[in-house]
Amino acid sequence: MLSDPYRFISSRCRRYETDLFETRILLQKTICMTGPEAARLFYDANRFARHGAMPVAIQKTLLGEGGVQGLDGEAHRHRKQMFMSLMTPERIGRLSQLSAAEWEASIRRWGSNRDIVLYAELQELLTRAACSWAGVPLTEGDVKTRTREITVLFDRAASTGFGHLWSRLARKRTDRWLTDVVGRIRNGQLRPPQDSPAHVISWHRDWNGELLPPHVAAVELMNVIRPTVAVSVYIVFLAHALHAHPEFRERLSTERDAHVEAFVQEVRRYYPFFPAVAARVRQTFEWNGYPLAAGRRVILDLYGTNHDARSWERPNDFDPERFNRGEAGTFNFVPQGGGDHHNGHRCPGEWIAVELMKLAADILCHRIEYRVAEQDLRIDWSRLPALPRSRFIIGEVRAV
């Protein structure tokens, strides 16, 4: 699984001709599942719980402790509504405007005489935009440090050795930083806009009527900022798709909005982003003749479900038109989780991802010209997140 985290589950399910199998992961008996019907089952909150499901290593790096991802029942639904209140078209539009301004500033800074690594540049660009949108102060002198700390939360969370220790240290530092921000908001030293994530989260009262503990509020604030910066992975894949399939670039350039949504969604389906999610069985039950014991960890294969031939036509082809043919559904298209946004564990941040990717497609197709440098564009499947080995290098960037 460490050597091929995205294809581990689906390849073995094909070998065994089944939708699930049992193995041991981190010494624990674990059931691995794939496919749309498995996804429908997995997102049944009466059958599965999230508390205690994710490995401790992921809790202490990527997710943080006390956040919405580990909640269940009424506590989860109440906390989730806090995030959903931030996902209005107006608020997402504001983030898109801030990101567009950062793109323009970056393009001017890149100039036309040097090569740039797009992945690294996007991290800083999106950190600036995300913090501004969230209402979190970020001085110019802190930009690079905070960008590195936020990025390592998702870029090294599943690493071993030094990389994992670096991610844990970054989590401690970002938690301290945002705990201080929450404290200053609550004592009146900072006054972000009332509709900003920093204000909403700092003053949110949980299902028991109490303000979130400061460190939990900090984790939830990072749960807004970190996924926004992680869209840098998707945008690199979008650039990769434009380079690998220039025929779609021509269509996007001539027809613009008619195909951009479908193109963006196909990037999210086709390329590897997050490999799998975990839950635990609430009470013993049987599914398709297989007993699932109470307390057993279950892992749902996201990448394999997005490539399941039972619900996708030619799933290994890059074909944006499939989204105009109605192939996508709630449980077969799960790049950031499945089910219902409001009551389930489907990530509300996918709306942000789509809008920021649409903005990037517009910029890469219409607003700049650039040269794709000679490089190794093969996908490194063994890392989390998977990326082109070269991180996508461009040069001779010029605004048009």
Quick overview of this protein structure:
With 400 residues, the chain is an alpha+beta fold. Helix content is 49%, strand content 12%.
Report on the structure:
The protein is of the alpha+beta class and 400 residues long. The chain has a single domain (8-399), classed as Cytochrome p450 (Orthogonal Bundle), CATH 1.10.630.10. The protein contains 14 helices and 12 strands. The chain has helices at 8-16, 36-42, 56-63, 73-84, 89-110, 118-134, 143-155, 162-186, 197-202, 214-244, 246-255, 257-270, 302-305, 350-367, and strands spanning 20-25, 28-33, 48-49, 116-117, 276-281, 285-287, 290-292, 297-301, 368-372, 379-380, 387-388, 393-399. It has a 5-stranded mixed β-sheet with strand order 1-2-8-5-3. A 3-stranded antiparallel β-sheet has the order 4-12-9. The chain is globular and about 60 Å long. It starts with 7 loop residues before the first helix and ends with a strand. The model has no long low-confidence stretch (mean pLDDT 92).
Q: What is the CATH architecture assignment?
A: Orthogonal Bundle
Sheet having the most strands:
5 strands, mixed
Number of strands: 12
CATH topology term? Cytochrome p450
CATH homologous superfamily label: Cytochrome P450
- Give the terminus-to-terminus CA distance: 45 Å
Mean pLDDT: 92
Form type: globular
Give me the Rg, rounded: 21 Å
Strand order of the largest sheet: 1-2-8-5-3
Judged by helices, strands and strand pairing, the structural class is: alpha+beta
Helix content: 40-55%
* CATH class wording: Mainly Alpha
What is the H-and-E element order?
A: HEEHEHHHEHHHHHHHEEEEHHEEEE
Count of runs of 4 or more consecutive helical residues: 14
* Number of structurally distinct domains: 1
